[in-house]
Amino acid sequence: MLDNHIHMYYGKSDTPQEFLEKAAAAGITGGNIISLYPAKHGLVESADQRWEHRLEKVLEFTSQAPGFHPLFWIDPTADDFEKQIHTAAEQGIHGFKIICSHYYPHDTLPAVQVMAECQLPVLFHCGILYSKNCAAKYNRPIEFEELLAVKGLRFALAHAGWPWTDEFNAIVGEGRNGFFHSDIYVDITPGTPFVYRREVLKRLYMSGFDDLPNRVLWGTDGSTNNYPSQHVLLDIETDKKILSEIADPANVFDVPGYKAETYADIWKKVSEDNLNAFHKKAE
Fold first, then answer.
1. Which of 5, 44, 147, 149 keeps 20 to 30 A from 179, CA to CA?
2. How many angstroms separate the CA atoms of 259 and 257, rounded?
3. Number of other CB atoms surrounding residue 140 within 10 Å
4. What pLDDT is recorded for position 79?
5. What kind and span of H or E run contains 31?
6. Which residues, in sequence order, are CB contacts of 269 under 8 Å at separation 6+?
7. What is the pLDDT averaged over residues 218-246?
8. Is 189 helix (H, G, I), strand (E, B) or coil?
9. Which of 206, 190, 197, 273 is nearest to 242 (CA)?
10. Residues facing 7 on adjacent strands
11. In sequence order, which residues have a C-beta less than 8 Å from that of residue 138 and are 6 or more positions away?
């Protein structure tokens, strides 16, 4: 199983070996590890938040964690964003992470165009942002619409856009209708509180969007500092049950054109195959 959404945080961290052991205890053998965040996302007293240092740390960590892809968390509004992207690509980064903490998604267009040229994917936060900044307005799903027009861009929107999940589904549907040249994926990392999760996932999968089962990525929002094995096991149990209900045609909504075979191996797709496809140019 692959965990698409794992953070590195400032402060005391597990060694790569300790992290691998905790991940393995939950059945996780690979995924994405996101670098430490930029200073403009939040200052950390006495920490080295230079982009060069953050890039070095995630590459060093993942070099000792086989199966895990390094993602570089970048501030796309930085004056030297182009240098950061090209340096990261040259040094072996597998993709980028962006959280619109003080800017709108359309402000990232110059940077994501460069990322698309480098053929590297981008993972965006999408939905409510729990931070000291009032940043929710930057992360509503509708604000990401302009990204759909970036030719060659391969990107994922995380957290199912909660609480704007219907708006999120509409953007996913627009991205899959064939009018645009970008390649959109869906990251269902919570996000969604437990009480909403079954309904959110059913609405997503049952919307009938083209090739949707092959576009969904699974993650935990866990951390290399102390990977939460027991919590991850509970998440797996919950999501496997929900997805099995969606895959079983006896229990799904009556959707015109629904084909049960489309949802065959749904768990394998969401927890393994789709992330491999997301990183198809980073192999």
1. 5
2. 6
3. 20
4. 97
5. strand 30-34
6. 213, 214, 216
7. 96
8. coil
9. 197
10. 34, 223
11. 100, 101, 102, 103, 104, 105, 129
Listed in sequence order, the residues at least 6 apart from 179 whose beta carbon sits closer than 8 Å to its beta carbon are: none
Backbone angles phi, psi at 237, to 5 degrees: -60, -45
187 near 156, Cβ under 8 Å? yes
Which residues in 151-204 belong to E strands, given as ranges? Answer: 154-157, 183-187
Q: Whose CA is closest to 158, among 249, 32, 74, 48?
A: 32
Of 126, 54, 65, whose CA–CA distance to 91 is shortest? 54
Q: Which helix (H) or strand (E) holds 32?
A: strand 30-34
Please state at what angle helix 81-91 crosses helix 109-117, rounded to 10 degrees. 30
The whole-angstrom separation of Cα 58 and Cα 36 is 8
The CA distances from residue 262 to 11, 199, 214, 265, 269, in Å, are: 44, 20, 9, 9, 11
For residue 26, the 8-state DSSP code is: T
Q: Which of 77, 154, 145, 143 is nearest to 117 (CA)?
A: 154
- Whole-angstrom distance, CA of residue 218 vs CA of residue 125: 14
> pLDDT category, 89, cuts 50, 70, 90?
very high
β 30-34/68-73 pair status: parallel
DSSP output for 53-93: HHHHHHHHHHHTSTTEEEEEE--TTSTTHHHHHHHHHHHT-
Q: For residue 283, what pLDDT is reported?
A: 45
- Cβ-contact 179, 186 below 8 angstroms: no
Residue 179: both structure tokens together: 């009018």
The letter for the amino acid at 84 is Q
